[in-house]
Amino acid sequence: MRKVFFGILFLYMTAQFSWAMHPNAHHWTEKEIQLLKSLWIRSLGPLPDSPSNKWADNHEAAALGKKLFFDKRLSANGKVACATCHMPDYNFTDALPVAHGLEDTTRRSMPMAGMAYSPWLFWDGRADSLWAQALGPFENPLEHGISRVKCLYIIRDHYRFDYETLFGEIPRFSEDQVSPLARPAADNPKVDALWKDIPQPLQIKINRLFSNIGKAIAAYGRTIQYGPSKFDRYVKAVIEEKSDKLPEIFTSDEAVGLRLFIGKAQCINCHNGPLLTNNDFHDVGVPQPKGFAPDRGRAPAIAMVRSSEFNCLGPYSDAKPSECQELRFMDTNIAKYEKAFKTPSLRNVGQRPPYMHAGQFMTLTEVLQFYQKAAKETRNETSNSLEIIHGEISDKEIRLLETFLNTLNGSVVSAQ
Amino acid sequence: MKSYSRMLALFLMAIGSLALVTGCQTTGTSHHHGGKSHLKPHYEGSLFTLSKNKTYSVEMRLKDGPLRVGRNRADIIIHADDQGKSRDVEKARVTITPWMPMHNHGVPIDPVVQERGGGLYTIDNIDAIMEGLWELRIAISSKYGDDTAVFEFEDVKKDHAKTGHQGHAHMDKMSMKDGLNAPEGTDLSAKKMSIRHLYSLSYESLVSPMPINRIHTWKLMIKDRQGVPVSGALVKIDGDMPAHGHGLPTRPEVSAGDKPGLYLVEGMKFNMPGHWVINFYLTKGKETDTVSFDLEVR
């Protein structure tokens, strides 16, 4: 009996002690409430327009796009679909350090939810729309490994009705006339020559069809969104001043972790807004995995997106030039973007390891420890990681931050 | 806390004035240039030197205080003597090489030079990678000829408060917990006189309140000291988040509006709430001037 009594007393004391550690865990100043509201999923607003894709909000286009997204025939070995690396039950990414299509690539698959809000796609932002992004992997020899001409044949053979209902007639020619290998290819002179043999008017028609494939997939991709998380319920209660509800939603550890996130640890510098990303590119100094070539990130991608025939100002875009503001006002300071990668969203981050642009870390703890160490080195000026301005974070605070990050986990919804 | 940060500021200022003095002394030039008109500095407390063959005068204003370990920014103004008349040097090829003469090495990252018009050039990414004696070696090539100038900095120190992307992070760790607010006493008005008091500028966002993560346009009104609208000025812009050290996520452009003195600033974008600084660089005829607006985006 005595044992039980002391047991209960001990538990009670521990609970009291933990509360005493964070006496005001759920008290937020006016300024902090503003910040919390800025991170709330309801601050996200409606999907932004996609002027370069006039089928962006077309349901039939999204339905076709969804079929294409899961179609493994759109690959050289018949085994790779978009969904191979963007798995719906794994936050539309995969569990591998780097994406694996036909072979290993050099970067991690990006989670797709909420991407319609991002002005730049891919880790380096070399595409300026979801539809332009969707086209990249098809012709990458490490991913789908097929050509735009082969895509046309697959559409012709399997999606003729769906496609022609939406986009009009598929150009008529046969494999004897145009090689299914033909594509513009800096990496492969042979297939590049096959592409150059195609008369230009026909090239344009092929490109048009290829871009329409991207636009259908983008119409589906736009529907992939984050649902609310425990964090969002907490913010809602904060805004509605239901202070008695707060401890029911967040433990004090979670609240203290949140306070670190928006305060001392300065995570919010880059992970801000309702998707917890500033959509910009930063060099945080993560080393390349062993055996990987250096990766310059955003720096070379600036020229790529600017010269891409599939950009907002290109011939396959449906936008007026005045609607291509992001491209027009893109920051072209290459030195600034050397080795810089896109800030990822932190929504659902706990559900989808590994982390960083080449899956360098397997757990959130490792990521946070990396920032802890890098921040220390930056303070001591022994590191070149110029962009890490996190505060001095203790091991305990890392645990609290991780606890908070897991409150950002929620559902992912997409068009059925 | 506050008194500590004040002390820190005083200390930095003291170091700053010291560096200005050494900068001039060690370059062997002085502010009393006499005679020729192109030998006059524009800014108080700026560094000033003549190029080796006296083709150019070069005035340098370090934007983040004294040169420090880490990334620094500067404005330089280049003038040439053209038969006794001072001329703004435009369309010059300007390269800046940070150099450690005692160690005989430079830096891995080249500074980025951008011409702003009227002889003004801005330099980003001056990356002093260690403490010690540094030179900023400047090579200028224009229709007036090729020449070089050197600014020397005897004792470049670490500044733990400085870090960040473009080096323009004057992060005061004491006051900067969330970066949401400008330092106390900051003038947040949307109407200001330019540094040389040549113009008065006022801005207004066409989208109100100032949006976050959305490209939008500002209206900018420029008037002279008498209140007369100034049209036909060449206006360049950049911006910064002083507490965080990242610049604007876009590269906005300024063009003439449809009324005298009115300009449109397109491509403005703030990607986080907090204290931002927006700089306008004006050139009208031979005159150049600058104005910095502090604003808090919510």
Could you give a quick summary of the protein structure above?
The complex is a heterodimer of chains A (416) and B (298). Chain A is mainly alpha-helical and 416 residues long.
Descriptive key words:
heterodimer; A: 416 residues; mainly alpha; Cytochrome Bc1 Complex, Chain D, domain 2; 2 domains; two-stranded antiparallel ribbon; 4 strands; 41% helix; elongated; B: 298 residues; mainly beta; Immunoglobulin-like; 6-stranded antiparallel beta sheet; 5-stranded antiparallel beta sheet; 1 helix; 18 strands; 9% helix; globular
Instruction: Supply the number of helical segments of chain B.
Output: 1
General shape of chain B: globular
Helix content of chain A: 40-55%
List the chains of the largest interface with their residue counts: A-B, 36 and 42 residues
Which percent band covers the strand fraction of chain B?
over 45%
| Low-confidence region ranges of chain B | 12-37, 160-178
Structure, described:
The complex is a heterodimer of chains A (416) and B (298). Chain A is mainly alpha-helical and 416 residues long. Chain A folds into 2 domains: 22-47 and 228-297 and 339-413, Cytochrome c-like domain (Cytochrome Bc1 Complex, Chain D, domain 2), CATH 1.10.760; 59-221, Cytochrome Bc1 Complex, Chain D, domain 2 (Orthogonal Bundle), CATH 1.10.760.10. Chain A is built from 16 helices and 4 strands. In chain A, strands 1-4 form a two-stranded antiparallel ribbon. Chain A is elongated, with a radius of gyration of 24 Å. The model of chain B is unreliable at 12-37 and 160-178 (pLDDT under 50). Chain B has 2 domains: 2-156, Immunoglobulin-like (Sandwich), CATH 2.60.40; 191-297, Domain of unknown function DUF4426 (Immunoglobulin-like), CATH 2.60.40.3340. Chain B is mostly beta strands. At the A-B interface, helix 2 and helix 14 of A face strand 14 of B.
Secondary structure blueprint with pairings:
The complex is a heterodimer of chains A (416) and B (298).
Chain A: H1 2-21, H2 30-39, H3 59-69, H4 82-85, H5 130-139, H6 148-158, H7 160-167, H8 189-197, H9 200-221, E1 225-229, H10 230-239, H11 246-249, H12 252-262, E2 281-282, H13 298-307, H14 325-328, E3 341-342, H15 364-379, H16 395-405, E4 410-413
Antiparallel strand pairs in A: 1-4, 2-3
Helix pairs in contact in A: 2-10, 3-9, 5-9, 6-9, 12-16, 15-16
Chain B: H1 2-27, E1 47-50, E2 56-62, E3 70-82, E4 85-88, E5 93-99, E6 112-117, E7 120-128, E8 132-142, E9 145-156, E10 191-193, E11 199-205, E12 216-224, E13 234-241, E14 246-247, E15 253-256, E16 262-268, E17 274-284, E18 287-297
